[in-house]
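haha ok so turns out i had the wrong file open the whole time. this is the CORRECT one, sorry everyone. sequence first:
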Amino acid sequence: MIKKILSVFFSLETMVVLSLVFLVAQISATLMKTDTDAWVNVYGTLWFEIIMWLLGLNLVGVLFKYKTYKKVPIFVLHLSLLIILLGAAITRYFGYEGQLFLRNGEVKGEVVVIKNKAHPSDKEVVDLGFKIKLDKFVMRKYPGSMQPSSYDSYVTVIDGDKSFPYHIYMNHILVYKGYRFYQASYFPDEQGSILSVNHDPGMWITYIGYALLAIGFFWSMVYRKSRFMMTVKKLQKSGLFAFLLFFLLMPNVSKAMSIDEYAKNSVNTAKEFSTILVQQNGRIKPMDTLDLDVIHKITKKAKLLGMNYNQLITGMLSYPEVFQNAPLIYVGHPAVRKELGIEGKYAPYNAFFGSDGNLKYSKEINDAFNTPDKDRTKVQREWIKLNERIYVSYLVFTGQIFKIYPTPNAKNENYKWYSPFEIQQMVMMKKIDPFTGNFYVNQFASLVKALRDFDAKKVAEIRENIYKIQKEYSAPILPDPNKIKWELRYNHWQVFPSLIGVYSLLGIILIFIGFAEILKEKRFPIIEKILYSLGVLALLAHTANMLLRWYIAGHAPWSDAYESIVFIAWGSAFASLIFFRKSMLALGAGLFVAGMFMMVAHLNNIDPQITNMVPVLKSYWLLIHVAVITSSYGFLGVGSMLGALNLILFALRKYKNLDNQIKQLNNIIYIALYIGLALLSIGTFLGGVWANESWGRYWSWDPKETWSLITMIVYALVIHGKMIPKLRGEFIFSLLSFLSFFFVLMTYFGVNFYIAQGLHSYGQGTADGYWWINVIFAGMGAWFAVVIVTLIMGILSRVSKPVKLEENEYHPKG
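then structure:
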């Protein structure tokens, strides 16, 4: 009896069941309202610990039951998971973390420790055995803003007669006598520091597990190389099936002669105006970049009424009486358009104001803001967006958005720049010398007049004079002129938006050709080479533009939502062009996925602005962690698309024998998923190391890292499904490969835009009604349904007729 129970417990079916329970528990925790709720109900509970222990014991039994130790690379890979679990257990039971609150000049030798996050009030004071003195706390901000650039603690460690100074800042910790001190936060008055203190005896054991995991993945890839290469070399046929129509919307050109006249005559003046340097959110950039960001926010386009974004901005500034009556402000919801009484998607600025100059729709806007976010209707969300577009338009019409003037006291003001409107206010409040202030205001008035007169030469002259003022008072923060020139080119080329159509169209054509080759059993080598070459050119353009953005921004181009989605698209294109180039179906799928991600990156709720980095991201770990983990999404996206295409081949199988093609495509899917899982796992645990260097703990059940773990488990189950009856079927494998990508979508988009909380909140965006979250949940629900049903069928099949695992069944056959 005991032998039977152990046989059942140490089975893959039991591992799947435990994993499913583990997944549901984590998903439930991440969807709870607060971090405390998650710890009280899940992470801090005894039953959650028991599940992890059972998973560890089950893994030990499975490794020996299936004699995994005979394949050393595979054994090392799975052994690493046990070591990681062991390190996590030691951390959980013997480690602790606390906070050290220090004012400037203060000395302390004790930390306040929270014993259990499920009970935050349960605290104790721990004596360090030495003392820390805060000599000085320094807050550095981006020029002209309140946004922190870095915060540093200069401390002295005092241990009896011994003492030494140390500089603690984000991603640079103090390690002393088993304690690790991290820069966590600071006092609101900026006169003190809050250090996170961590004592973790399980850290190095966990790190060893991480290292073995990476070694195991790479070693097993080498071990499987002959199989993988054999599969790739044998592939001669594949593709993707779809049809896409592109609708080119003609600009909504007004018939008003004044608008037409301005459009014809303002090209040169707008071009000269666009090169003036302006300060926004702590960043100095050409006016061209500000113009593009503002017009995109107001109109959702870069061109409108026959004018480019620079012309639109100079028109709003120089001829407000004309442009306030021009249809510029985008209105997304039909009900709001009806309320405004407009035809089409654009309303004039004046449509929102009454004859008394007051906002006519203040009630609707106030009601929308006063309604909790989760209860807001689509109409209310539209009013909130319109309120922002109206306000930004107001800032342009009044000139308040153009912060181009530093004051003679700029160095003592953190090099803050001001708009002419603010300069005028400062003159009235006697905060600036009237002569200097009035000179700035009059100069800007001359600039506006030159714009009205279409005098490009005068605009250029004033621009040079403004630059002399900026250079005199803010030289240390001015960007290199070459960088400004390249930023202008980056804006004008608009490479990323163009790649949406390029990738999508190439992908569709390749998929169509792939299906044609399969059905006709004939290849088209010349067409294949031409399309492949076009794909390579698109990838090179994509890469060059990412490098250009890197140069302009001064940091790796995957630090926010927009940049990381663009990088995921790059990973999809790279994966397909490098690894799956001999399969037209796989190649087309990868390029199409890249096009879809590029399209998502340019949706209305994703901000493409180049922004400053928060202090925690100023680390070489950004290059490593984010690059690896987002690359994995590219491979997993290709695997998902190929899974969907393989399902189409299953549907066509009744008309033609496609078994060989289906098998080949399944092997490609396996390779894509395996590489994707390897990168995802390594990237996730590299993130854990970075988190430990930044926040003082390598795993905190933050929603982002938790969903990364969920996705890892999902893909691990899909890959190991080849060892379980029913789950090993080619149809089920293709279906699960497709459905599994919904967990990736939840990890990236769901956490960033739906859950929108946790330590990764610096990467979040704003969701628009969350309609898409229902699609993601439906996909994940379908995945669970397929796994559970097939698992039950597999168990019943094994009970009625035991199935012997073949030697080579663990891996796809070449």
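The first strand starts at residue 96 and ends at 103.
again sry for the mixup
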